[in-house]
C-alpha cells in the first residue's frame, strides 16, 4: 500500500483537471450549467440552433457563454454588445473561429469563413477596391434587365418561382463578377452551382461542424469512417473545377478583346497591384458568387412566403406603389424614395426572417473585457440576430410581421427604446467582416420588391377541391443561411395591361442581355430565342 502513496496526489490532480475541463472559468459571462469534459456539448443544439440560443438568452441575458470542452463560445443577443465588441473593437474581433471543414475544402482562401490572415486582408482589399458604390451603380442596367426577366418568367411559369428567384440572383452576380449571365435555372452550369452551394452550406452549418473544431480528436478519424471528410474532398474538387472554369472563360475573353466590364476583368487587369495568386483569384470570385447568389435568392423566397401569409401587408404596399407608379410603366429605383411603406416592408422582412439567424461567427484574437466579463483570446463570438429581432423588450409583438412598426419609429422598436445599435444593415454583418456586397444586394432587393408588388398578386395556392393551402412561415431548411422549404402559392399578374408592359420591357432589355450572353450552349441559345417570342394575354 505504501508504494502507491506517492501516486495519490497525481491521481487527485488528474481528477481535478478532468473536472475543470469543460467548466466555465471565472469571469466568463453566465450560461447553462456545464458537465466535466464536455462542458455544454451534450446540450448543444444539433438543428435550428437559433431557437435554443434565444431560449438561453431569455434566461441568462444578452451576453452569455457556452463551453465545448476547453473552448468558449460567447453568444450576443444584444445589439449594443455586438456593436461594442465587433464594430468598435474590430481590430481584435475580426478573426474567424477554427473551421476544419472549411480548411479541407478551400485551404483558407474563402473570404467569408477564412481566418484574419494576410491572405484574407489582401483579398478583402481587392474586393473593397473593386466593389465600390460607383461600380455598383454602373451595374444597374444588368440588374434591372434581370429583374425584368424575373417578372417575365413569372408570367410564363409562375409555379417555378422558387427556382426562378435563384436564377435571377445567380445571373445578376454571375454577370457582375464574370461577365456571363444565366438565362435559365435548368442549364447544367447553373444547376451544378446550386447543387455545390447546397453541399457547402450543409457542411458549413454550425450545428454540424462546430463539434469537430472544439474536439480536435475527431480530425484523426480516418476518411473511410468520416463521411464529412469524403464530402469535403469531393466538394473541393468540384468547386475548383467549376470556379476555375469560370476564371478561364474570363481570361480567354480578355485575350480576344471581348471585355464587358465584369469585376473579374478588373481584378485580372490589376492582379500585380493586388498581388493575388491563382488560388486567391479563384476564391475571390467564388466567395462573391456564392454570397450574391445565395443570400439574395433566400431573401426573395422568404419575401414571397411572407407576403402570401400576410395579404393585408401586400395589399397596403400595392396601393402605395399604384399611387406612385400608376398603371403605364414599371417602377424605377428613384420611385422608392416616395414609398415609405414599401421601404418599411423591406426592413421588416430583414427583421422578421433574417437570412443568417446566427450571423457568421467571429473570433477574438486577443483577450477582451466587456461589462465586467472577461472574454479570452480564441473565443468564438456568435451574434444571435434571431434573438435580437424577436426580443419583446425591443419590439411590440415581434412574432408578427408588421411593416408599420418602421413607420412608427426609425428602427421599428417600441417608442422610447434605445435602438441606436440597431442599424438597418445589421443582417449584413459587423466590423471588418461586414458583407462587401451590401450595396449590390440592397439594389437587387429594392428593384424586385417594387416590380413584383406592382405586377403580381401572391396568394395561397388551392387544392383540387378549391381549398386554400396554408403556408408555414417557420418551415425552413437547415444550413448556414437556411432557406424556406419549397412551398406552393399562386402568382398571377394583377392586370393584363401590366403583363403586356412586362413583356415589352423584356424585349427592350435584349440589348443589355446580349452583352452578357457569352459562352452559351446551343440549348441555351435555343431557350433564349424561344423566350423572346411574344405571348398571348
From TrEMBL:
The protein's annotated pathway: Secondary metabolite biosynthesis
Pfam families named in the record: p450
Membrane-topology annotation of the record: Single-pass membrane protein
Residues that coordinate or bind heme: 435
Claim: Iron is one of the keywords in the record: yes
Source domain of life: Eukaryota
Gene Ontology annotations for the cellular component aspect, listed alphabetically: membrane
Location within or outside the cell: Membrane
Entry keyword annotation includes Nucleus: no
One MF term in the entry's GO annotations: iron ion binding
UniProt keyword list: Glycoprotein, Heme, Iron, Membrane, Metal-binding, Monooxygenase, Oxidoreductase, Transmembrane, Transmembrane helix
Main subcellular location: membrane
Cofactor(s), by name: heme
PANTHER family per record: CYTOCHROME P450 MONOOXYGENASE ALNH-RELATED, P450, PUTATIVE (EUROFUNG)-RELATED-RELATED
Family (UniProt): Belongs to the cytochrome P450 family.
Protein name: Putative cytochrome P450
UniProt source species: Mycena sanguinolenta
